[in-house]
């Protein structure tokens, strides 16, 4: 991975260093991977200004040119798939097999938007008289700034940068301080692919509030995109209001996973394993509250316990590892506090109470979870299954919707009438039916309520970086 391992911010096609450094650590070993430089305010403003210069050039390019550049970026990412996956496992901790899958997933966004670049269609509007011609067309919004999280250090970047470039926008990215190395590698490969200098700048910093404040309050930055917690998202939205920026926010979730008594139980449990334990439960769409109809509760718990018992926790480079470490020790502490609170309030742990060192957390199953417990209301972001029994469809729909979040929901049923009823009644931006892994570059990803604004993926993801212009011509 050495040829894609960098330690400075990437601005205007060059690496930018400062005297202030911080460590990027391996969550599996707690050892430093590399020391990287912390960008100063001068560097942040330089990134914004060079992104503006790049935008002036980029907006004049045609869609085919941008499409070709994105395809070259896609090819370079795929050529370096193994190296990028190893870099991801090293800085993020997820099993290498999952990291390889994420490179494919992240690259798929680049390819999709290389294709979509040529499809930002306008409209010819039927005029109301013979003396006018009415049309509308789309133009790039301008300089984009974004902040991405640590849990998907490649896919969260390409899902934002690829549609922005396809639309003709330049980008200033602040990746998580825990996983900046993949972002730097992606920016370097984008530069090699022919991105305009300054069209993809990456800022490294431990001080996200400082960098975020400059980006959100800049008059040059016209669009801001963020993936992360609802609390931070609200603060960023407040800051963006000062310059009335376009925003897209993919925020927190509290995903229900419902198993009805007519479901195929083996398929349901298999789907739950993917929805819950992918990336060790550290995903915004992870199944958080598992609702099981009471008549099948014992069967589901038994089948689930057998599968969970086979999961192997360990270093992501281990050949048979299913669950890597949590991102840092405080994440493990939070999970254990939620479990302790639930057990103190009556939840029953049916899986073995295995204590692991450092940031490694053994998968757990809790039954008897109820709304009095903190774990019912908070994203666990860890490998803990919280099971809640229910009796009737109306009951579980009320419980599933009675949260301020609305990102993803899942349910298993073989009743076609129920499938229509429940899919329409769930107050969530995405619903998986008899499927636990729903993310797809060709489909819109995003939530409702306090889970965010806007969509990523699909043709909708390109529209997030375009402005509609109406033109009225008098003949």
Automatic annotation (TrEMBL):
Its EC number is 1.2.1.16. The keyword Zinc does not apply. One of its GO terms (biological process) is gamma-aminobutyric acid catabolic process. Keywords: Oxidoreductase. Residues 19-471 form the Aldehyde dehydrogenase domain. The active site is at residue 250. One of its GO terms (molecular function) is succinate-semialdehyde dehydrogenase (NAD+) activity. It comes from the Bacteria. This is Succinate-semialdehyde dehydrogenase. The gene is gabD.
């Amino acid at each position: 991975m050495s040829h894609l391992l960098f330690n400075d911010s990437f601005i205007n096609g060059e690496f930018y260093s400062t005297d202030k450094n911080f460590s990027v650590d391996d969550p599996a070993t707690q050892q430093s991977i590399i020391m990287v430089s912390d960008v100063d305010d001068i560097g942040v403003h330089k990134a914004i200004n060079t992104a503006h210069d790049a935008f002036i050039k980029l907006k004049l390019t045609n869609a085919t040119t941008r499409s070709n550049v994105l395809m070259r970026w896609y090819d370079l990412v795929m050529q370096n798939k193994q190296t990028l996956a190893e870099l991801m496992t090293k800085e993020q901790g997820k099993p290498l097999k999952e990291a390889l899958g994420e490179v494919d997933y992240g690259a798929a966004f680049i390819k999709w938007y290389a294709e979509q670049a040529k499809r930002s269609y306008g409209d010819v509007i039927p005029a109301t008289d013979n003396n006018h011609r009415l049309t509308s067309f789309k133009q790039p919004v301008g300089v984009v700034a974004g902040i991405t999280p640590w849990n998907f250090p490649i896919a969260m970047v390409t899902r934002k940068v690829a549609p922005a470039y396809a639309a003709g926008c330049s980008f200033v990215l602040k990746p998580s301080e825990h996983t900046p190395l993949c972002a730097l590698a992606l920016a370097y490969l984008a530069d090699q692919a022919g991105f305009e200098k300054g069209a993809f700048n990456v800022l490294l910093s431990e001080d996200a509030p400082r960098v975020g404040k400059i980006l959100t309050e800049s008059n040059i930055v016209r669009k801001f995109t963020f993936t992360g917690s609802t609390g931070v998202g609200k603060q960023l939205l407040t800051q963006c209001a000062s310059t009335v920026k376009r925003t897209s926010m993919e925020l927190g979730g509290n995903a229900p996973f419902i198993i009805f008594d007519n479901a195929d139980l083996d398929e349901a449990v298999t789907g739950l394993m993917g929805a819950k334990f992918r990336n060790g439960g550290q995903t915004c769409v992870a199944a958080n509250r598992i609702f099981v109809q009471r008549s099948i509760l014992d069967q589901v718990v038994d089948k689930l316990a057998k599968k969970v018992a086979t999961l192997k926790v360990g270093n992501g480079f281990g050949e048979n590892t299913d669950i890597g470490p949590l991102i840092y020790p405080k994440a493990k502490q939070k999970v254990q506090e939620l479990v302790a609170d639930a057990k103190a309030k009556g939840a029953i742990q049916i899986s073995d109470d295995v204590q692991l060192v450092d940031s490694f957390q053994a998968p757990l199953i809790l039954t008897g979870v109820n709304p009095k417990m903190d774990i019912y209301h908070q994203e666990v972001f860890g490998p803990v299954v919280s099971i809640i029994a229910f009796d009737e469809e109306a009951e579980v729909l009320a419980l599933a919707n009675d949260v301020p979040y609305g990102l993803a929901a899942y349910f298993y049923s073989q009743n076609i009438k129920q499938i229509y009823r429940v899919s329409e009644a769930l107050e969530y931006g995405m619903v998986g039916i008899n499927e636990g892994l729903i993310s797809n570059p060709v489909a819109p990803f995003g939530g409702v309520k306090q889970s965010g604004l806007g969509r990523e993926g699909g043709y909708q993801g390109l529209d997030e970086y375009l402005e509609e212009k109406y033109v009225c011509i008098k003949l």
